[in-house]
From TrEMBL:
Species for this entry: Anditalea andensis
Transmembrane segments: none
Pfam families from the UniProt entry: Peptidase_S10
UniProt-listed InterPro entries: AB_hydrolase_fold, Peptidase_S10
Lineage: superkingdom: Bacteria
Name recorded for this polypeptide: Carboxypeptidase
Flavoprotein found in the keyword field: no
Gene3D superfamilies on file: alpha/beta hydrolase (3.40.50.1820)
Annotated signal sequence range: 1-20
């Protein structure tokens, strides 16, 4: 698809911090350029602004600089009704590159239709971008992308933890929305993987500490969100994902393999809820005959042998599953997307040597992003673009983000939530995402504002061409649904 550019470049740099050896961090900067993209057959002109905006301490002194890329449709006159999407990825320690140049933004990196890297590296137009219905800003947290702490010996606890991350990023968003004059706009947060922990906490923080109210939160491949699932639940909840993956690799018996995936999975989910979890409650006191009966059924659904299931007392760890499922073929399967296959040094062991999915993605994304930032966005720096940055140790204590999100929904009748999951994601599996949604709403009174969508791909479901179109359309419809009619009151 042809993509046209007309660059209007303006660079403003207010403050910089020297790093030595000629490198420096631009505390505040912005460079803008104009472009067009065709989305769903319609020409969409837009302005792209790549820049940095500071994080301040309590005394008003800058302590970090965050890199962002902001896309605004330029043929819109009524900005008060124009939705704004604020986008984060996860890690923790991951840049916002993944959804930026592979999902919702106006450009796509060069990959094949199943998400495998191709050359030449670079980007092309994204005909499925949500830029037709919403402006988007992609934000890189501290030490990811081109974002940095200004003092390498500064207090890392201000940034690197569940609640510290939520607090400083909420403050940053408050400043960005104010500077861009977007307070009147319907607003949406989207996060992927650990980014779901981030945005689930941020929507409550922004609502209660900054009085900024949102219309929607989109959770892409969500984490546990601080919702307890220890014991029998933790042991059993992965079985539906195992069944999906075994189905993909043609590892089930014909009675199951010949069924459509979305016909098969409800049966496995029902077995997990009604039989597997109750049996695991009894632990080692489960009757031997019942244990063997369950092992036969788990074997049927997972593609693993009854022998290894019994050896694991029915609770097969994910690492072992990734190593074991195709062991007889000399192959492993991916963690973040179990469609990908890998080759280990030896066939023995209880876990793969590496994640073949992540390796393939890094191969494609890093060259494309570095080329795109400099050649299309015209943002120049000698800093390394950190796909994954140094953010450890990460303080995971006090994670109540699932309940934070529930509270924000209860307080804000406008607020809707959509969850997107890939059936073949073994890092943040689809059934645990459903479980989180169920547990987040114990009263059952939020069901009309909670929605879950599944896709036949992995952690980054949008890397599969078919799901790129479907998942973007699901976001597009979610935004349109969650943006109320003019004058519609927020009330129960």
């Amino acid at each position: 698809m042809k993509k046209c550019f007309l660059f209007v470049v303006c660079l403003v740099t207010m403050t910089s911090i020297a790093l030595g050896q000629g490198r420096k961090i631009e505390v505040e900067s912005a460079v803008s350029s104009t472009h067009t993209v065709t989305i769903k057959g319609n020409r969409v002109p837009y302005r792209a602004t790549a820049g940095t905006q500071p994080v301040w301490d309590e005394a008003g002194e800058p302590i970090a600089s965050l890199f962002y890329t902001y896309y605004e449709r330029t043929d819109i006159s009524d900005m008060a009704n124009r939705p704004l999407v604020i986008s984060f990825n996860g890690g923790p320690g991951s840049a916002s590159i993944w959804m930026h140049i592979a999902y919702t933004g106006p450009v796509l990196l060069n990959m094949d239709d199943e998400g495998n890297p191709t050359q030449p590296y670079g980007t092309r137009a994204n005909p499925h971008s949500i830029l037709d219905v919403a402006d988007i800003v992609y934000v890189d947290p501290v030490n990811t992308g081109y974002s940095r702490m200004l003092d390498k010996d500064g207090d890392r606890k201000k940034f690197f933890g569940v609640n510290a991350d939520i607090e400083y990023l909420s403050d940053w968003v408050n400043t960005f929305v104010t500077r861009q004059n977007r307070w009147a706009s319907p607003k949406y947060l989207i996060g992927e993987s650990y980014g779901t922990t981030r945005v689930a906490g941020m929507v409550n923080q922004l609502q209660n500490s900054h009085w900024m109210y949102f219309n929607g939160v989109i959770l892409v491949s969500p984490t546990t969100l601080g919702i307890d699932r220890s014991g029998p639940v933790a042991a059993a909840n992965y079985l539906p994902y195992y069944a999906a993956t075994a189905w993909y690799h043609n590892a089930l018996d014909k009675s199951l393999q010949n069924r459509d995936l979305e016909d098969l999975l409800p049966e496995v989910e029902t077995f997990t809820i009604n039989e597997f979890i109750p049996a695991m409650v009894k632990g080692g006191f489960i009757e031997e005959d019942r244990k063997r009966e369950l092992a036969r059924q788990i074997s049927k659904y997972s593609g693993l042998s009854e022998k290894v299931i019994m050896e694991h007392n029915l609770a097969v760890p994910t690492n072992f599953f990734w190593k074991e499922l195709l062991r007889d073929q000399g192959l492993t399967i991916g963690r973040l997307d179990s469609r990908y296959r890998g080759i280990d040094k030896t066939g023995t062991g209880d876990r793969p040597d590496f994640d073949p999915a992540l390796t393939a993605w890094n191969h494609a994304f890093a060259p494309a992003m570095n080329h795109y930032v400099r050649n299309s966005l015209k943002f120049e720096t000698d800093l390394t673009y950190n796909l994954f940055g140094p953010v450890h140790p990460w303080d995971r204590s006090g994670d109540r983000t699932g309940d934070n999100l529930r509270q924000a929904m209860a307080q804000n009748p406008y607020l809707h939530v959509m969850i997107q999951s890939g059936y073949f994601d073994g890092g943040t599996d689809y059934f645990n995402a459903k479980y989180s949604m169920w547990q987040m709403d114990p009263s059952g009174k939020l069901q009309d504002r909670l929605d879950w969508k599944g896709y036949r791909s992995g952690h980054m479901m949008y890397l599969r061409a078919e799901d790129l179109a479907t998942s973007n359309e699901d976001i597009r419809q979610f935004i349109l649904k969650a943006t109320p009619a003019k004058g519609a009151p927020a009330r129960y």
